[in-house]
């Protein structure tokens, strides 16, 4: 509404310049929305997988393992459910993927540290202990809850045991050169793994410090090797 010469309010068309500015701004907003949509679509499958697993860790950290469902993950990632189902299939598949990611990270950290350590039993034991404890602490309290969830499914428990066997064998290869007999019993290696899990979870829950967990686990490993002399 504008005043005319008679000081009366009448309807008026929007000035041409203002109208063109309005059209331009509207077009820019639409283009921006389209660009954002296209950006999301341009993620490669591997990039989308990495995005989804990162958000899954966040959900567990902030809301707990029980809150992690494929639907919740899709909502937090701002993607449709079929995208999440295509990557993981089921909730069990998602949990397994997270555990495998954790184990792979643990393997890389440990392998690198072992290669850089001195060929002395005490050094090797310290590296194994610190690598295991620190990797669990890196994920905070999420790892104990994921492992607890894995134990509830035969399929997931099988995955956990397979990776545990790989870890035990890796430790055997690293430590057996420091024994006189050249042998280590499976029982002692599995006992070491049990101690590693218990100590790391205690550290993650704040019952003991990370340093205390590392020192104790290192001592257990050294004692295990010395019994094999």
Automatic annotation (TrEMBL):
<protein>
    <submittedName>
        <fullName>Transcriptional Regulator, TetR family</fullName>
    </submittedName>
</protein>
<dbReference type="Pfam" id="PF00440">
    <property type="entry name" value="TetR_N"/>
</dbReference>
<feature type="domain" description="HTH tetR-type">
    <location>
        <begin position="46"/>
        <end position="106"/>
    </location>
</feature>
<feature type="DNA-binding region" description="H-T-H motif">
    <location>
        <begin position="69"/>
        <end position="88"/>
    </location>
</feature>
<keyword id="KW-0238">DNA-binding</keyword>
<dbReference type="GO" id="GO:0003677">
    <property type="term" value="F:DNA binding"/>
</dbReference>
<dbReference type="InterPro" id="IPR009057">
    <property type="entry name" value="Homeodomain-like_sf"/>
</dbReference>
<dbReference type="InterPro" id="IPR001647">
    <property type="entry name" value="HTH_TetR"/>
</dbReference>
């Amino acid at each position: 509404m504008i005043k005319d010469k008679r000081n009366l309010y009448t309807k008026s068309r929007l000035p041409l310049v203002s109208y063109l500015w309005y059209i331009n701004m509207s077009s820019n907003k639409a283009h921006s929305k389209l660009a954002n949509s296209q950006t999301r679509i341009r993620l490669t499958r591997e990039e989308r997988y990495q995005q989804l697993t990162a958000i899954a860790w966040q959900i567990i950290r902030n809301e707990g393992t029980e809150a992690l469902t494929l639907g919740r993950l899709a909502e937090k990632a701002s993607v449709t459910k079929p995208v999440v189902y295509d990557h993981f299939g089921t909730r069990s598949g998602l949990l397994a993927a997270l555990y495998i990611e954790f184990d792979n990270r643990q393997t890389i950290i440990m392998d690198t540290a072992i290669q850089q350590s001195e060929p002395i039993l005490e050094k090797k034991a310290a590296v194994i202990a610190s690598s295991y404890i620190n990797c669990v602490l890196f994920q905070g309290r999420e790892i104990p809850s994921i492992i607890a969830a894995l134990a509830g499914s035969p399929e997931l428990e099988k995955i956990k045991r397979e990776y545990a066997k790989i870890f035990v064998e890796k430790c055997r290869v690293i430590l057996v050169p420091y024994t006189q007999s050249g042998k280590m019993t499976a029982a002692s290696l599995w006992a070491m793994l049990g101690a590693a899990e218990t100590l790391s979870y205690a550290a993650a829950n704040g019952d003991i410090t990370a340093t205390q967990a590392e020192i104790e686990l290192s001592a257990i490993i050294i004692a295990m090797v010395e019994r094999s002399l």
